[in-house]
Design brief:
This protein is mainly alpha-helical. The protein contains ten helices and three strands. The chain has a three-stranded antiparallel β-sheet. A hairpin with a 7-residue loop joins β1 (140-145) and β2 (153-154). It is elongated and about 60 Å long. The relative contact order is 0.13. Bound molecules: zinc ion. Zinc ion is lined by residues 303-304, 316-317, 319-320, 326, 328-329. Zinc ion (ZN) is lined by residues 303-304, 316-317, 319-320, 326, 328-329. It binds a DNA duplex through residues 3, 5-7, 11, 14, 32-36, 38, 41, 290-292, 294-300, 302-303, 305-306, 318-326. This is Zinc finger protein 704. It is found in: Nucleus. InterPro entries: CR1/CR2-DNA-binding_regulator (IPR052253).
Length: 331
DNA sequence: TATGCCGGGAG
DNA sequence: CTCCCGGCATA
């Protein structure tokens, strides 16, 4: 009566479906599990949702006031083109780097078109900004290896890449056979950084700060980006969100203390931190084993439900909608 | 209390 | 398959 479990609210909506007497809906299944209209399949739909969701999330994080008024505005397909052109029209002035190149690299080839090729097909635009370092005006660019312990410096892009590949990554692109992961290894990029050296300024800036990861997939090996929302691979949407969040220039006025689900981009040089090894080994972290070890230990990140709220359920990831393990914010 | 999600049921 | 919910373990 007074304390509705917050879910009933939606439950009513589902049954009563008041706000919209859909014409072609004569069946009034009052007490049966009824299916959602669900427009159609979720192909681009889902992608758009993700896009919209992210956008919405951004808005939500920026404007603490007026909890409503967002979806109504940018949910319909009308915003599809808009929702995806945002990353180009971001109000950010200093858009130069410090983020996934694929975000700023593509200008018109927007992935959300037909085939969607983002960074798996990443062009070799690595050594570009350094090309005209030859000018020799005041600054010079050198490439420094960022392998833990190694600080080798080279003066040209190919050199450092060769160094990284030969000295650290191995002669070939044959890393540990983890699972998936395809050709397309330009991993070397992740292990060196270009440093601008003026006349006598040793430590100028570090660019690829959080790019230093252990030998892992450098991109999505997923060719079929249709249901990357379901099977819950170790890394997928979260990564996307992460990157998105990391690249988002939004200053987030301190008014809202909302924190992104992943606290993206803060790890300086996380060398080895992949926690997706098998937790099944000596000294299991589970000391109490409640009864069913199969039950997911529910991470601490906010899932779609909490992030978007019971209303706006349409923005949840598919799994969340179905009360299954969330995939978008797979923590 | 609310949230996350497993297991299971309806189409 | 997709979609949904009861109910439980959690926080
Ligand atoms: Zn989710």
């Amino acid at each position: 009566m007074a304390a509705i479990p917050t879910e009933n609210k939606r439950l009513f909506r589902g049954v009563a479906c008041c706000i919209d007497p859909s014409t072609r809906d004569t069946s009034f299944a009052n007490t049966s599990r009824k299916r959602r209209p669900s427009s159609s399949q979720e192909d681009k739909e889902d992608l758009m949702d993700e896009c919209t969701a992210a956008l919405v999330l951004m808005h939500l994080s920026c404007s603490p006031h007026s909890p409503n008024g967002w979806v109504e505005q940018l949910s319909p397909a009308a915003s599809l083109s808009d929702a995806c052109s945002w990353r180009s029209g971001t109000p950010s002035p200093p858009l130069s780097e410090s983020g996934p190149s694929w975000l700023s690299a593509s200008d018109e080839g927007i992935g959300l078109d037909d085939d969607f090729d983002e960074l798996p097909k990443k062009k070799k635009a690595v050594c570009t900004s350094s090309s005209y370092s030859n000018d020799d005006t005041t600054t010079r660019v050198v490439y420094q290896c960022r392998w833990p312990g190694c600080h080798v410096m080279k003066s040209t892009c190919p050199s450092i890449e060769a160094h990284v590949r030969n000295a650290h990554l191995g002669p070939r692109n044959e890393r540990e056979g983890d699972e998936d992961m395809e050709g397309d290894d330009h991993e070397e990029e992740f292990y060196y950084t270009e440093v601008e050296v003026g006349f006598t300024s040793p430590p100028p800036t570090l660019s690829h700060r959080d790019m230093a990861r252990p030998p892992h997939e450098g991109s999505y090996p997923e060719p079929t980006l249709s249901h990357r929302d379901m099977a819950r691979p170790p890394h997928e949407d979260p990564e996307y969100q992460r990157a998105l969040a990391a690249a988002t220039p939004v200053s987030i006025p301190k008014t809202a203390s909302f924190s992104w689900p992943v606290s993206a981009a803060v790890s300086p040089v996380s060398i080895r931190k992949s926690g997706k090894q098998m937790k099944l080994s000596v000294s299991a972290p589970n000391a109490k084993v409640p009864g069913s070890p199969s039950r997911r230990a529910r991470g601490d990140t906010k899932k779609c439900r909490k992030v978007y709220g019971m209303e706006h359920r349409e923005l949840w990831c598919t799994q969340c909608k179905w009360k299954k393990a969330c995939t978008r914010f797979g923590d």
